Amino acid sequence: MKPESAIRNENEARAATPAPAPGAVASQRAPEKVSAPSTTLGDERASRYEKIRVRAYDLFLERGSREGGDVVDWLDAEQEFDAAPEKSYRAGAGGKSN
User: Fold this and answer.
1) Does pTM surpass 0.70?
2) Separation CA 36–CA 22 (nearest Å)
3) How far apart are CA 49 and CA 85, in angstroms?
4) Contact 51, 78 (CB under 8 A)
5) Distance of CA 98 to the CA centre of its chain
6) Residue 81 half-sphere exposure, CB side, CA atoms within 13 Å?
7) For 1-50, how does the pLDDT look when each residue is reduced to its tens digit (9 = 90+)?
8) Residue 56 to residues 11, 31, 41, 63: CA-CA distances in angstroms?
9) d(CA 23, CA 15)
10) What confidence tens digit (pLDDT) does each residue in 50-97 have?
11) What is the DSSP secondary structure assignment for residue 56, as one 8-state letter?
12) I need a labelling partner for 69 at 20 to 30 A (CA). Which of 45, 63, 88, 95 fits?
């Protein structure tokens, strides 16, 4: 709970702030900058999505570009992606994987 003096100071500050003119925008502050999350989770999801999208399109082409199988193509591509063994950084860079 705030001390009474702090509440009084806040109320005085609010009272000293001029009211906006009629028809004026209530808040004319610049928008706050929102920084991106420091994790790469979003990048990983985007990469996974893109790989699945490309594979689903390849499956579509393999089916002769016939309409009507987009969901099955997507699910098959997703299943292939999830079943593929994960490569370690060392294996992908030409080094030995433990």
Assistant:
1) no
2) 37
3) 17
4) no
5) 32
6) 18
7) 566 666 666 666 666 656 656 655 555 555 555 555 555 778 888 899 99
8) 61, 40, 22, 11
9) 20
10) 999 999 999 999 999 888 999 999 999 999 999 987 654 445 555 554
11) H
12) 45
Euclidean distance between the first and final Cα of the chain, in Å? 57
| 74 closest CA partner among 97, 54, 89, 88 | 54
Q: Which two tokens stand for residue 60?
A: 């579509």
Q: Give the CA distances from residue 4 to residues 1, 7, 11, 15, in Å, rounded to whole numbers and listed in that order.
A: 9, 5, 11, 17
- Whole-angstrom distance, CA of residue 75 vs CA of residue 38: 30
Are 92 and 71 contacting, i.e. CB atoms less than 8 angstroms apart? no
Q: Which residues contact 20 (CB under 8 A, 6 or more apart)?
A: 26
